[in-house]
Specification:
The complex is a heterodimer.
Chain A lengths: L8 H9 L5 H15 L6 E4 L1 H16 L11 E5 L26 H8 L3 E6 L33 H8 L5 E6 L5 H7 L2 E4 L19 E6 L2 H11 L6 H4 L7 E4 L1 H4 L5 H16 L3 E4 L8 H24 L5 H10 L4 H21 L5 E5 L8 H4 L2 H11 L4 H5 L4 E8 L5 E8 L4 H14 L10
Parallel strand pairs in A: 2-3, 2-4, 7-8, 7-9
Antiparallel strand pairs in A: 1-3, 4-6, 5-6, 5-10, 9-11, 10-11
Helix pairs in contact in A: 2-3, 7-17, 11-12, 11-13, 12-15
Chain B lengths: L11 H10 L6 H22 L16
The chains are: A alpha/beta, B mainly alpha.
Chain lengths: ~450, ~60
């Protein structure tokens, strides 16, 4: 039987719609692969076998009946387990006391289903999405498919690991400080955080209302555009994405965003710039004067908002939280209103500064993370978890603060075989140009088609 | 209002009073665990106070304009 485990979402949808393969066959293969291999990765918290097979049969029925099956016909998609799927518990990677049973799909899930996607299960995450390691005392750690002794990154680590391992063609993640782009980078897949507000967040357990974003993890930038069009209920930007990058002005904010890098990250991302230039991109150095302060504002806003959401649970069941998450939530109770508003004032100021920089260039390019995946054994300690949050969100959380669209694409591997990610960010609502740069890079390279041995 | 010179870092004793004032019940161990993180947040806020912020209203609509 033909193996479509690593086929793109676009290819699967095209082949299901044209009846060269059935959705049922695609989904059965995915479920079989999960059963065979996920025990060692722990990427899924709940595999929805029966529901997925039923959904696949309905897609095939639609195709046979000549009804339009949708742009994601038969595409197996996993959903981070803070997003509501009707009739399936939302665990948020938390203590069972905090699990809820939603009666309705989140709008993003409803849109995926309406587009013909098949939801195959719910993926593991850092507890309540509040951390980057995915070391989780309640569900066990998700492991990186490229090296199972290492973290997949987080908090959408299960979604990234599942796509990397060929368990599904795409997955949903959430991103409050980098939680789509960090695991995408560390697992060697593509991850898109759209512009703030473009994709609805209702039906998703909040972490920080001001910073939360929902977006796709996929094999390619082209697929990310396809998923985005469904999630945002917007037209597909396929034509724009395929335009190439001749003449595209690519801004390199070397100060802050290119400092203190792991040597392998620096080398891979530097080579990526050379490839973008070879394909017609104009590489221009830019300065964002106060970029280094974005993390401070993002951290204060996140701390206060997360604690506001969790306050009642903390008072009543503080002991039910993992220690690293509890320390972060406890500290947020003491952020003053004045400091919260100060951070929002800084947000206004910094957003203006980033957008001002993007008047002179079309996109900004940076490493996605400062370093490749860290060993899991280091990430169980509270102090390590807190330090890793600080380190790994350094280049991603400025784009949560400013709400600008940002993409991570694989751009190389370290000598130890660990993936490295390149971040491409753009103007508000200009996902098309961000994806266009990512697609052009992936047309010229093959980092994104490498698969981990399972 | 007067301010201590150099904004001295919050002490454990001050944090205990603050927690009680706000109606939170924390053990000394828990407050000790979060004190370093609170000091870090204080430093972040101090950093933001150095920005050349103008009188533009703080962002409450978060979609970038």
């Amino acid at each position: 039987m033909e193996d479509l485990s690593f086929a793109s979402a676009s290819e699967i949808a095209g082949r299901v719609a044209s009846r060269s393969v059935t959705a049922l066959r695609v989904v059965e293969a995915c479920l079989g692969r999960i059963a065979d291999h996920d025990r060692s990765l722990n990427s899924f918290l709940n595999v929805m076998t029966d529901q997925a097979l039923d959904a696949a049969r309905r897609v095939d029925d639609a195709v046979r009946a000549g009804r339009p099956p949708g742009p994601l016909a038969g595409v197996p998609v996993a959903v981070k387990d803070i997003i509501a799927v009707a009739g399936v518990p939302t665990t948020a990677g938390a203590h069972p006391r905090f699990h809820v049973l939603p009666h309705e799909d989140a709008p993003v899930v409803a849109r995926l289903r309406a587009a013909g996607a098949v939801i195959v299960g719910k993926t593991g995450l850092h507890e309540f999405a509040y951390g980057v390691t995915n070391a989780n005392p309640h569900t066990g750690s998700v492991r990186n498919p490229w090296d199972r002794s290492r973290s997949p990154g987080g908090s959408s680590g299960g979604s990234a690991a599942a796509v990397a391992a060929g368990f599904c063609a795409a997955a949903l993640g959430s991103d409050t400080g980098g939680s789509i782009r960090i695991p995408a980078s560390l697992c060697g897949v593509t991850g898109l955080k759209p512009t703030y507000g473009v994709v609805p967040t209702s039906g998703v357990v909040p972490l920080s209302w001001a910073l939360d974003h929902i977006g796709p993890l996929t094999r390619t930038a082209f697929d990310a555009g396809l998923l985005l069009s469904v999630l945002a209920a917007a037209p597909q930007p396929a034509g724009e994405i395929r335009r190439g990058i001749a003449g595209l002005r690519i801004g390199i904010p070397r100060r802050f965003f290119w400092e203190d890098l792991d040597p392998a990250v620096e080398a891979s991302c530097g080579q990526a710039l050379a490839i973008l230039a070879e394909h017609g991109g104009a590489i221009l150095d830019v300065v964002i004067p106060h970029a280094a302060d974005a993390g401070a504002a993002a951290t204060l806003i996140l701390s206060a908002e997360a604690s506001a959401f969790h306050e009642r649970r903390l008072r009543e069941h503080g002991e039910a939280y993992g220690e690293d998450v509890r320390v972060k939530l406890d500290r947020g109770l003491f952020v003053s209103a004045v400091d919260y508003v100060l951070a929002q004032r800084a947000r206004t100021f910094l957003t203006r500064e980033f957008i001002q920089t993007l008047r002179d260039v079309d996109v900004l390019v940076t490493p996605a993370t400062i370093a490749p995946a860290a060993p899991l054994e280091d990430s169980h300690q509270t102090a390590s978890s807190l330090a890793m949050s600080l380190e790994y969100t350094r280049f991603t959380n400025p784009f949560n603060l400013t709400g600008l669209p940002a993409l991570s694409v694989p751009c190389g591997f370290t000598a130890k075989g660990l993936p490295v990610g390149l971040q491409i960010a753009g103007r508000p609502f200009d996902e098309a140009t961000v994806l266009r740069a990512g697609h052009a890079y992936q047309e010229a390279t093959e980092w994104h088609v490498r698969h981990p041995p399972l | 209002m007067t301010e201590h010179s150099g904004r001295e870092a919050l002490t454990l004793e001050q944090l205990q009073v603050l927690a009680r004032t706000r109606g939170y019940e924390f053990s000394t161990d828990r407050l000790t665990a979060i004190l370093p993180e609170l000091h870090r947040l204080e430093r972040l806020a101090q950093r933001l106070r150095m920005l050349p912020l103008d009188d533009q209203s703080p962002t409450m609509r978060f979609t970038p304009q």
